[in-house]
Fold:
Amino acid sequence: MFKSIQYVIRENLSNLFRIYSISKYELLADMRDSKFGIFWNFASPAIQVFTYWLIFGVAWDRQPIEVKGISVPYLPWLVVGYAIWWFIQPCIQKGCSAIFSKTGVITKMKFPVSVLPATIVCKELFNHGCMLVIMFVTLFLCGYTPNINWLWILYYMFCAFAFSESVSLILSVLTMLWRDIKKLVTSLIRMFMYFSPVIWECSFSSSVPFAAVLNSIMKLNPVYYIIQGYRDAIFYGQTVFDHPLLTLYFWGVVLVLFAIGCALMFKFKKKFIDLI
Amino acid sequence: MTEYAVKVDHVSKIYQLKNKDGSHAKKQFYALRDLSFQIEQGDVVGILGTNGSGKSTLSLILAGISDIDGGTLDIRGEQALIAINTGLNPQLTGEENIKVKGALLGLKKKEIEQITQSVIDFAELGDFLYQPVKKYSSGMKSRLGFSISLALDPDIFIVDEALSVGDKGFAKKCMDHMMKLRNNQNKTIFFVSHSMSQVRKFCQTGLWIEGGKLQKIGPIQEVCDEYEAYVNELNALDAKEKKKVLKKKFDQRLIPLQKKGFWARLTGGIK
Structure:
């Protein structure tokens, strides 16, 4: 078990330049594909957020979300949640085909396969950066000014990175064994979004039966921790020390996922070529 | 007595077969069966065999890409398979692709800067270097890919049908480069090719595999002669007989198997 974790970490660390180059040039190739290039890295998430805001915020007239006496209008609340979802969702979805899409490379050269999920996550980290720009602009327009507590975003970004890396490690290997995983994940991810506090706060009102139980279950979702973390940092002035239990739980889950991912990667590292 | 570079001991490689409808057949197939040989350092080995006899499987195993299912394999030194078109991104320019493929091959940033000029010189692409690779002709693509592969400096080269790219001039240039590696740097080279004249000129040892089994290993001219005689004999047969011979050869490589599902593979590994 520890051997496999050690193996994956060492292979990733000794190939940092490889990871960087692969993600950089894949991004570049994506941009060359279209005429406006990098414009779309900003435009597509902006359009998404605009759509959700139009429907849920304007058409359904969502009231400002109030937590612990601080109320936040829907648009800034949504844009923060969506910013992190825009990172995690493609990581999970593209993480599935991280290895499979590089079939041509791994069958033709000796290649450290375990770095492939990391290349996907790094690539999406760039897109997340673009999305953060949109988020900050929206926040400024809504009258929020940065304060020192916003720096906690960096910590939660690292949480998101660790979580996405672990999940895509697992999913990329499973997809090689069983191609259906990719289709399954593609269909489930949309459902997953509604079980995460992206466009609604993921808490049932007390009129719903078992509301308390359901609300606690919602918090077991690791993505809940990350998204709420971003919002805590920006709106509610809270830090990670305000919910130590959830933090411990989150890192526990991530470590277990990472260990499973490493074990799978280690076990099948030489078999991928026969699984294609 | 020089030291050996590669020692292959009773190595087998098994592939899973599928039925006509795509489901898993309860059959396995020996891609390589009980292969044993030893290659000395600095030797140039020509791997011969008809299509589907296991040449490419052997080169993948020697390159350390594919795992073996039985036996032991001992390789001393860094090995690299010369892959031509792998890792080129059609959207990017030739110059960027040198960096991409260099990074894929595991070169450090400094090393890539060092090799860039020699790759540009060797590929002779001129101003096309700044065009996206999707606009390249297939020959030009191969030139670029091959030139980058050559910039590697492993102890053991594995060249699988890679020298039949480009026009005659470029093929000769590649050949000359390989000759230089052979003569001056004492590299061990495995050379897979169907061009008998190339193999005879370039290699020292011949390795003939047929139906996944080692048929003969020895001085190149001898093995080439025997191999050519075998091919001629096979071609002389009429279609029906030929089919029979091939079928027999195929059946010899089959082994029955107990079926393993997804979960069994996940928990038990493939072996």
Q: What stands out?
A: The two ends of chain B are 36 Å apart (CA to CA).
